[in-house]
Amino acid sequence: MPSVSVDFPIFGLGKAAVIGLGTLVIMLLGRPDDIITTGITTAVVLVVARISPENAWHQPLLRFADTLVGIAVGVSCRWIGAYAFFHAVGARVR
C-alpha cells in the first residue's frame, strides 16, 4: 500500500509554506528580530537540499554546526579582545 505524504515543490508553494511556518514559530516565540534570519536560513537549506537531494537531511545539521562554530569563534574573540584590552590598560579582567 503506498504511503500518503504532503509533498510541496521546493520552489513556489513549498518554499512559501516552510518559510511561513518558520515565521509563525518565531513570532510565537516572541523573537520578531530573528524572522529575517530564519527565512534566509530556511531558503538556503531548501536550495541546497534541492541541489543535492540524496543528502538533504545533512543540511539542517550542518547549518546548526555552522552556528555553533560561529558562536564559539565570536565568544572566543570577545574574551581574547577583552583580556588584551584590560591587560594593556592595566585593569582587572571582568
What does this structure look like?
- This protein has helices at 13-28, 35-51, 58-89.
- The chain has 94 residues and is mostly helical.
- The chain folds into 2 domains: 7-55; 57-94, no CATH class.
- Helix 1 runs antiparallel to helix 2.
Biggest sheet overview: none
Q: Tell me how many strands there are.
A: 0
Overall mean confidence score, pLDDT:
82
Please tally the helical runs, counting DSSP H or I stretches of 4 or more residues: 3
Number of domains in the coordinates?
A: 2
3D shape: elongated
Strand content: under 5%
Low-confidence stretches: 1-5
Helix content: 55-70%
Keywords:
94 residues, mainly alpha, 2 domains, 3 helices, disordered N terminus
Q: What would a concise description of this structure say?
A:
With 94 residues, the protein is mainly α. It has three helices and no strands.
Layout of helices and strands:
Layout (H helix, E strand, L loop, with lengths): L12 H16 L6 H17 L6 H32 L5
Helix pairs in contact: 1-2
